[in-house]
Model the fold of this input.
Amino acid sequence: ETGVTQTPRHLVMGMTNKKSLKCEQHLGHNAMYWYKQSAKKPLELMFVYSLEERVENNSVPSRFSPECPNSSHLFLHLHTLQPEDSALYLCASSQDQRGAGEQYFGPGTRLTVT
Amino acid sequence: GQQLNQSPQSMFIQEGEDVSMNCTSSSIFNTWLWYKQDPGEGPVLLIALYKAGELTSNGRLTAQFGITRKDSFLNISASIPSDVGIYFCAGHLHYGGATNKLIFGTGTLLAVQP
Done:
């Protein structure tokens, strides 16, 4: 595997379900990010991890819970979501959380909340 | 907050035509990035610009970092059908101790008629 991978690619869940999104980066980076992409809106940064430590939480509801066990893996745990949470969830990584800015994205997980 | 105005919102062109799109900001940036996103996929980094006035090419793509550091443009020459997608600009402002936070434009949808 190369680059940034995400699983699953598609997920349909009910509002009472608990699920997790997984991201893995194979680039040797030490910063990882979760973004939400909704139709007709700019990409919204949700969480930033640097060296496995959360350094930013952009006022994201607690029904989204990130986890970064090491610098290569990032999870987003989901529980009691709302239909408006349906979106494309993108993971990204970068060389350094204070670097020149280049972030590399995974293919995303298309989430539908029913 | 910081905003990026990206224009045009959409473009419908004939194969072989040249394309130009731009981003403007109310704030200055240290880095400008251009991404392309295909349907159902994550954004792919096309070009990164690090210095005001810098002009960088990647094949048929050329991007420039505006001299005021508040704008950037992307040109695509001799468009082909596989250029179809959404193009995003992103600006990065690194200031001491801050996270590697990108501000994204709203995207330009490009459609190419064969």
User: Anything to note?
Assistant: Chain A has a mean pLDDT of 90. Chain A touches chain B at residues 4, 6, 31, 40-43, 45, 48, 50, 55-56, 90, 92, 94, 96-108, 110 (CB under 8 Å).
